[in-house]
Write a structure and sequence with these properties.
Helix content is about 70%, strand content about 0%.
Length: about 160
């Protein structure tokens, strides 16, 4: 029976999925290193995930995500990617900070908010004219604490 996953359990599923993309086999030691936790913590988490039908992990064997585990891991990775791109590529936050923040935020975002944010990121990053004037204006405002009147005039001119 699958219970709702905690942020920690989602992190385990995401780590397993990412490790599986890099290596043919995923083991407790690799998960421990990836997440910076002790091996007994990994074993306990894998036991819980196994009970929930999200991983298969025979004693001392490799770790495999079940179909349901893959689905949840994919959802977590998508939330992370959308948040990371928003923070780093739109707001211009340092990639290291954006990674950490996205990791923290990915567990709290509703599906409705994720879809809207994903479309917003896609819309802004695929703007045919390049960086929209309003984003340039925001970046100037953030950096200087005041509006650049030249950019404001350009924005107003684009509205007509």
């Amino acid at each position: 029976m699958i219970s709702e996953q905690t942020a920690s359990m989602e992190d385990y599923l995401e780590a397993i999925a990412k490790l599986r993309e890099e290596e043919p086999e995923v083991r407790v030691t690799q998960i421990s290193k990836r997440l910076g936790v002790k091996k007994p913590s990994v074993t306990a988490a894998l036991h819980k995930l196994s009970e929930d039908g999200l991983v298969q992990h025979p004693r001392y064997g490799t770790v495999e995500l079940t179909r349901q585990g893959q689905r949840i891991a994919g959802e977590v990775m998508r939330r992370h990617e959308v948040l990371f791109r928003f923070l780093s590529e739109i707001l211009g936050i340092d990639q290291g900070i954006a990674q950490e923040d996205a990791c923290n935020m990915e567990h709290l975002l509703s599906p409705t908010s994720l879809e809207k944010l994903a479309k917003f990121v896609e819309f802004v990053l695929t703007c045919p004219k390049g960086e929209p004037a309003w984003l340039e204006a925001f970046n100037y405002y953030f950096e200087h604490g005041e509006r650049d009147q030249e950019i404001v005039a350009r924005c107003l001119g684009e509205e007509s």
